[in-house]
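Check this.
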Amino acid sequence: MSEPASISSGIAERYATAIFGISKESKSLAKLETNLNDLAQALDESADLSALINSPVVTRDEQGAVMAAIGKKMKLVPEMQNGLGLMAEKRRLFVLPQLVAQLRAMIAEDKGEVSAEVTSAKALTKVQADKLAKTLKARVGKDVKINATVDESLIGGLVVKVGSKMIDTSIRSKLNSLQNSMKEVG
């Protein structure tokens, strides 16, 4: 991991630990989880928000005011609102995407769940997702929450990442493997 990335994840982890601990004490983890989904969606969809959290030109006060307005509009739990306010005050909003990921992981661990990143050539149906979750649960031993994405370049099959393990059954990887084998022979 590069040094700036490890610094960012360390900063995010400290804020996530504090927000998670306070939310758990106040029994607002379920609401926090919903807030995280909304916040992640806002980060993905809003170029302005991404620019704001990464801009060195925007002042601390302006960032704090914007984050307070966003927190109020999105009805974020007080722990999250206060955390975002403190992050703005300390010029740490650039780690917001890592913070969301850290908090999601902490909540999942608290619930006894593990998250699986699944990439498929076509969108998974509900039945397929449920069957995959059941199969992964049998293999991992915990409830599995599937985060599905679509990548048509896979041609077919799946790429599944659970923790540090990756299972790649995509046709693209099989074709690449075959191509490499043919290069070795010829």
